Amino acid sequence: MSARAIGLAVVLPAAAASLLTWALTPEPADSPTEVAEPTPVLSCTFSEGERLAYDLSSRVGAGDIEDRFSATLGLEVVEVTPEGTLARAALSELTLDQALTEPHERTSARAIEGEPFFLRIDGQCRFSEIGFMPSWETPARRLVTTVLRANEIVVPGEPTLQWEAAQVDGGGDYVAHYTAAANGDEVRVVRHKPRYEVDPQAQALGITVAVLRSEAVAHFASSGIRSVRGAEQVLLSLPDGSEQILTHRFSMERSDTTPEVARASVGGADFRDALSMASAPAPDAFDPGLAEMELAEARDTFAGTLANLGLDAVFPAARFLADWLKANPQRSGELFESLRQGELPDATHASFFLAFELAGTDASREVLFHAIQDDVLTDLNRARAASALADHGEPSQAVADALLGLANDESETVATVSRLGLGSLAGRADGALGESLRDTLRGELDGARTRADRVAVIDAIGNTADDRFAPVLVEHLGASEPSVRAHAAEAMGRLSPEVARDQLVAQLEAEEDPRVATSLLRGLHQLGGSAISESELALATAQLSSPDPDVRRGLIEWLGQSASDPQVRQLLASHFHVESDIRLKQRLGAFVSAADLRSAG
Predict the structure, then answer these.
(1) pTM for the structure as a whole
(2) pLDDT tens digits, residue range 60-84?
(3) Which of 443, 449, 471, 510 is 20 to 30 A from 542 in CA distance terms?
(4) Which domain holds residue 241?
């Protein structure tokens, strides 16, 4: 099976785009008495040193199984030439759940978040090349490449309302059909994907990908791209005759944040096409050369990397140490003893336990089992070990039992992290183990004696991102304690919009506590999904008069997801003129244009 043919099933697509500007250029009229409609000219413009950010979200589902991705994409323009633009990029605030992706193709948020990579963007706004540093593993490269290319918007570079562009994403090669329409100072671009080109290798294996529907709508203003929103369905036919319908929903919103992008040299970047690279190596693969490295050298290299680069090195340092552990599994206990004896600085400990998680070996798992009960370790390090154990390798009953045993630990930190780990484990586990873990969480909630215990279990249930918990979360949306309602609201934000949205909106309408209302709005914002309804718009209009700035911020963020709707923009623009908080005014400016503000004034 080719990498591209299976990419949509095993790698999570999401929205992506570059900064676009446009101008209205009249076409010549056929006669002096005719007036031609203005035709938009779309193009990419960047300035060296410019920094941009976009909030991305995406969900890919097949039946009850779903992959979820959300992050902030930060871009820093490094170089602008006539041939195109080079930008350094990174993903922050990354949330990733991969239930649909094949196990050997999965990666983790920890392996990607904050890690720099490079984008070359040509004059048509195409991601012509994506370059990763050598430390990037294949699954992470493939995921990020698919995230960026799944919904890239390619512009024609000439005055036209219709055009085509050859593109490629995780499903393969295709020819996109575009249409554009200008409306005042905005351009609306629609992209359709009618079909994928035949992949001979996949066809020979009996694999086909058919597009059932696909539409992406992008909105551009004079300040650049404002939003991308769309949905598609594809039919995947497999060699055994089975078929699977995959549904992909995505959104992208311009952000006024400017996240830091870690420094990296483009000279060290690997610009090979990640979608054509071989599948990820087996979990026990490692660099044989590391087998010759002594413990002291490995420990010093690990600690020295962190000392020199600080937070930027947390993940690269952990991956190095994980590879050393794969090459030297028999020395895992010795390495752990180095930490117990105080031979590693405190600043390295978070990365140290991450390394044992990433190693994924039987030996590294045994060390984590020991660490969670080791009374020499600080409570924080025991909690780190519990978190690493929850995400280590394939879910197992032994790990579930260990985490459950810590759920009532004397250390509140250890107990809380262990419960959260149970939720994460339940979200990853299938079959009887998954059902057993869900029953365990329900039992933990029923048996919670204190408000703090209830809140901790609700947070763990949120970690599962499992729609089957919707009824119990809805029940706790009506709890008497405001903090319980707040945590239930944010846990529901991890579920599917079809399951959670109406319940969150109904509670928001009835909620009197501003702190809970803020959590309800965070949950609604996290859901993304469908456009705002008339009743929701009326509710938001009424609540924008709240004296609490956090509530107003939550409303602005929620409404901003539907800023392509003229009614929503009108409401946001009208509120701009009465908003007293300068920070909220700045946030409103990310969703409305100057023309919107003038018309509302």
Answers:
(1) 0.57
(2) 888 778 898 999 999 999 999 888 8
(3) 471
(4) 3-261
